[in-house]
Amino acid sequence: MIAFFVIVSLWEFIVRIKWMSSFILPEPSSILKSLIEDREELWGALRTTAFSVSVSFGLSVLMGVSSAIILFTSESVLFAFYPYTIFFQTVPIIAIAPLLVIWFGYGIPAVVASGFIVSVFPVVASTLTGLLSADPALKDLFKLYRASRWQSMVKLYLPSSLPFILNGLRISGGLAVIGAIVGEFLGGVGIGSIIDVARAQQRIDKVFAAVLLASGLGLFLIKGIDLVSYFLLKNWHPSELKES
Amino acid sequence: MKNLIVFLLFLSSVVVADGKPVKLRLALNWKPEPEFGGFYDAAINGIYQKEGMELEILPGGVGTPVIQMVEAGKVEMGISNSDEVILGRSQGAEVVSIYAVYQTSPMALLTHSERGFKDLKDVFEAPGTIAAERGLPYIRFCEKKYGFKNVKIVPFLGGITQFLSDKKMTQQGFVTAEPILARKQGANPRTFLIADSGYNPYLTVVIVRKEFAEKNAELIKKFVKATQDGWKNYLQNPSLANKKMSALNPTMDPETFQEGAKAQIPLIETSETKKFGLGYQSKERWEKLAAQLLDLKVVKNTFPAESYFK
Amino acid sequence: MSLPGLSVEAIEVTKRFASLTPIRSVSFKVKPGEFISLLGPSGCGKSTLLKMIAGLREPTSGKMVVGEGSPNQEDTRVGYVFQDAYLLPWRKVLGNVTLPLELLGATKVEAEFKARKALERVGLIDFEGYYPANLSGGMKMRVSLARSLVTEPNLLLLDEPFAALDEVTRLKLDQDLRDLWMESKMTVFFVTHSISEAAFLTDRIFMLSKKTAGIHCTIENPLPRNRTLMTRGDSLFSQLNQELFVKFQELEA
After folding, report:
1. What pTM did the predictor assign?
2. Which residues in chain A have their CB less than 8 angstroms from residue B162's CB?
3. Where are the domains of chain A?
4. How far away is chain B from the Cα of A27, in angstroms, using its nearest Cα?
5. Domain spanning A35-233 has what CATH number?
């Protein structure tokens, strides 16, 4: 906390004495001012962005986990389709964002598409790794009692993948926010739109205020995942077990 | 900061001393296109060199933060627009404009002729969508003047793909580029200059730091002269500079360069420039623009008109 | 009420992997209800053989016949205890012991009832609500044992289950296992590299050789059926140990 105040005070001081132009890096006080003065616009936009992020992240989790399960069940399917999932990770979202707007229309649909594309792969990859990492001895145990594929998936593979999936979700959540903001540059709604317009208006203080809110959203999401992880893993996974 | 001071001292000492050419960097705010023709001509034909300058032109692209780059001292000169200068100044950017390429702003709205619009008023009053950079002041001006009751402003995605695929769409563009490209793709655009609405800022202006301008008045004079010569050449015969720019910017073919260079002549050369020289800026124009921006509440404060330009 | 154990017969069983053949042409016959130990140095293929008896691996050639000729050959119920407890860490103790019954389709009520009985037999009924992370190594192994017994198996296979535990716990669990076997009639295979453990627990000892990848010799255990800690002090016990020790050395030669 102290470190935070020191940094912010130093920052304010540097800009005040014109050592750094407020045009390039606004003072914390002007950013705060914008957060207060423009709050209606900013918070309204934040709500829109938060909605888009929730939908796209939710879709990523659903489709990401399901895809990984499907890829896992058949080796031939895995080899055939895994490269396509990698595509989602490597495609430069900035380049295809205009296409998304053309396909899905302005507004939230394009933003959700953008957030989804950017955040789905970590979920697929981490779920798949988790499924593949199931303990071989436990697999033997299930084989011994002639467990069906369904039983194995539900009672062994999925629970044992949980720590991996949750880890992937942390990465995916942050990316969903970034993807949504990029989509909003062109989609015309939410925090991304505010950043885009404020930039053209040379309102750098407002840009920083909006960016701050976006980071806050990302932080909130990741902390939420941390909380879920704690509750799901607290009894059994080394990552959440306390020293006894 | 320290580096900039050292550099400025060096620069002023060099300007006084004879012999070594002054190194200058000019950051463009877009890819090389006819709007920068005069600069490239002067550079290619060694006109800057004759005046003791070595000018390096740095092409830009989407969202190049020219004002920030000049303000931070990363480049000595940059290309901006006069309304951006006023906006930047009110936010603390200490820059001034030393040369204005466009006397009439080439900013325009492309519409499909089939829609039968006769003027800007029609464009804004008919129901439909307009793709534009919503943060630019001219949008606010048009909103105040014409109202956006029936029309929806959506983000401009760049290029002309949307315009081509949607017969009901209107989009922003430069009169020297997008309409020509659209016509080549078989569309039938009808273009309306934003300047006709009464909002007519100087566009494609050269900016430098205020400090720089004060310390290097002689250099600036020489630069302006050289630039004027370069533009004089380009207006008459753009092919040399076009060749160079076309090589740097493959998204536009040589034919479009040619047409664009021709289309922009009446926007660059006016009765005023014939009297006062190319790149001329008047106090009255700056005053009017500042007043318009203040009235639109796009800026919170303005400075005396003389302080914006040299 | 436990049903009679299964017979197990191996006929020229061979297991070949890409680079080695740990089991080569092994044959034996085990009667229902026998307690057999598989004794040998590390790497002699004991675990591989055990897995083939369990049906977890298939022989490359030869046949492993389980339960033929037994009155209940349709009803093969195999229990397996691994070298580590391998409990599902996300389930409580009770949930771990009910697992086999769940997989075989029992109802929750039925499964929990039987699980509790099994936990009682290993002395852990008070810990049914604990998570494995909070149990000691010995306790986890007992849960694993309870899990293997919950289906009332007629064939129980154990792969060096007590090797990682301290001596006292090990001695106690050896005794518990022997007592459990006396109560039931199941056939038991116990893999170990501890001579004294093999001597204490079993009817017959199969000694496995790394060199021949097969059974070097079979030794009948002369000790009486009822064995306790006292038995370990018996002169017959130490004689058996010596004999096993000598035979063990032959394997190395």
Report:
1. 0.83
2. 102
3. 35-233
4. 11
5. 1.10.3720.10
